[in-house]
Design goal:
By secondary structure, the chain is an alpha+beta fold. It has a single domain, classed as Aminopeptidase, CATH 3.40.630. It contains four helices and six strands. A six-stranded mixed β-sheet has the order 1-2-3-4-6-5, with helices on both faces. The longest helix is centred in the middle third of the chain and has 15 residues.
């Protein structure tokens, strides 16, 4: 289960984006799925979530991890927190023996694309304005 501070940040971002942040019809079901199946690296300060990266590192056959969610609170953006959190997740996945990690990002999200490229992610394919990126661990 995700901590309340994390779900609050996700709900706030979903509202700020007019429902575009999580492109799923049922936000509660998506949050439940993350809470049950994903691990998360969280920056929690004074009970407030400043950033979170949810990741799946459970496909032991393919040794591929996947990051379905990267979110930093608006007032904490531009300080490198997303890069630190994603980098931490990559380290954790590497330590667990995973060999690749993927994520999806909107093609127009320049800040995220720049951060992911700095971490070694490369584009694998594009579909309807969404880029699938991967990095070798």
């Amino acid at each position: 289960m995700l901590p309340d501070a994390v779900t609050a940040l996700i709900r706030e971002e979903q509202a700020r984006s007019g429902g575009r942040f999580i492109a799923r019809p049922d936000l509660d079901a998506y949050l439940d799925k993350l809470g049950r199946h994903a691990d998360a690296l969280i920056d929690l300060r004074a009970g407030r979530c400043l950033g979170v990266v949810a990741y799946y590192a459970n496909d032991v056959e393919s040794r591929r991890a996947f990051i379905p969610l990267v979110l930093v609170a608006p007032d904490a953006r531009g300080q490198g927190l997303a890069g630190l959190l994603v980098g931490g997740v990559l380290d954790l996945c590497r330590a667990r023996g995973f060999t690749r990690c993927g994520l999806e990002v909107r093609a127009d999200n320049r800040a995220a694309l720049s951060a992911y490229r700095r971490l070694g992610f490369e584009m694998v394919r594009e579909r309807e304005g969404i880029l699938l990126m991967e990095v070798a661990l």
